[in-house]
Amino acid sequence: VRTVKRWTNETERALQACFECTDWSVFEAATSDLDELTETVTSYISFCEDLCIPTRTSLKYNNDKPWFSAKLRQIRQAKEDAYRKGDKVLYKQARNTLTKEIRVAKRNYSKKLENRFSANDPASVWKGLKDITNYKPPSPNFAGNQHLVNDLNDFYSNRSVEDAVNMGLHFVLKHLDRPGTYVRILFVDFSSAFNTIIPSLLQTKLTQLSVPGSICQWITSFLTDRQQLGCVLSPLLFSLYTNDCTAQDPSVRLLKFADDTTLIGLIQDGDESAYRQEAEQLAVWCSHNNLELNTLKTVETIVDFRRNPPALPPLTIMNSTVAAVESFRFLGTTISQNLKWDNHIGSIAKKAQQRLYFLHQLKKFNLPQTLLKQFYSAVIESVLCTSITVWFGSATKSDIRRLQRTVRTAEKIIGAPLPTLQELYTSRVRKRAQKITLDLSHPSHHLFTMLPSGRRYRALSTKTTRHKNSFFPQAIYLLNS
Predict the structure, then answer these.
(1) Is residue 148's pLDDT more than 60?
(2) Which among 71, 148, 183, 424 is least surrounded, fewest beta carbons within 10 Å?
(3) Rounded to an integer, what distance in angstroms lies between the CA atom of residue 336 and that of residue 324?
């Protein structure tokens, strides 16, 4: 059921007359609270709109297509009437007419989409493509999605989730190049992280960071008595709030991306004292800053490639034992304790295969290749390239072939060549590396150092194939080639 308002010149004049005869000072005198005044006035405007503007209700079915016009509905109704009457001749005529008119309607709608594309109206084109395929991307649910920030690929300039994952993997792989080492990774989960920020404490921290006082006061006023989950400023404010939370021991790395906090313990010769102490210090810092650790969702992964490693004692935080898991989805990338990517690749391969159905539906409309490529790039290629700079270099040939089959299937549907995964990986690694080299404040900028000649970058020292195929060594290799 779809309800729409019928706006006409007459109804607009009636609504305007309703507003003109309203004594707006009554609302101002009723309250001094700006939020309450805004809500009251908005409710009154909605009431006047409902009173003056008539509505029309129509039935719309999920399988209704945008090209199925009223004329086609009449022909379809005539066909159904002929079938009920048992008139075979009339039924056959109506059926043939309906088939012919459907072809014409599809052809006209295809031309309409093509004209919109030529007229540089991508919003209308995208709406038409979704109507044809019945593709409905999941809408963000701020109230129910506690990890929405994991899907924000760039919540501030030139920083992405791939950068955070690649940096964490670099710490791990570089440490594992040494003999007798292993890594313990603690994935910290906070309970309602954004909503537990104390505005006055944040103001103090912002002042220490030399933020102007007027801005500090505005932020404090903005946060007071306001739920922060889903707010655009929440990731940035939380990063500033936790800016003073750092690891003191050089063998422990604290990786933070918005409300996702990861503690990486680089263990040498079985000495875990620094790692366990930093975990306890993190818990103490959280208690002092009104952040509650969710011990039920805080988990740990142990990466250990030693021969015959002994059983390791579990980590305990706040008298609660942290569960050890074999894999964890960190910032949209599934990381396994064996540092293999079959789980992550399997999930994106399944998702990409499912979306090929929509491409098949568009092909039936004989849409131009330009539109089909655009849809493929937005809906399918974007899935295949999820964190591709993280996992592609270390992926097995069978996993890459599995994903490449999806690309070849799309090529057959579209009828045009598409970039391979290797080409996409190379292009994205180069672009990402170039942005990092130009950003002096980037956390991984120091890994790209020029040789004395000034023409090539110094290669990173790697002792394992696993480390060599990771992002930073490959990025330097591609920049030098």
Answers:
(1) no
(2) 71
(3) 12
